[in-house]
């Protein structure tokens, strides 16, 4: 049996996102907000579950996650939880 998805308090995280000045977040900021490791965030990006962009054309730069992408990710993940 698969482990249940973690349910995040969407409103609380949305408030944290709104407070940030930048339109994009680092992998580490996302990890801290969601209380997961940065490796988990990287895996979500690699699996196209979380949309992000790389600061380098060659893909060797730093990853950035748009605020809107994180909010969509949270909504999608939380809607998958069925009581």
TrEMBL record:
Cited Gene3D superfamilies: 1.10.1660.10
InterPro entries named in the record: DNA-bd_dom_put_sf (IPR009061), HTH_17 (IPR041657), SinI_DNA-bd (IPR010093)
Domain of life of the source: Bacteria
Domain Helix-turn-helix: 25-77
One function term, GO molecular function aspect: DNA binding
Name the record gives this protein: Excisionase family DNA binding protein
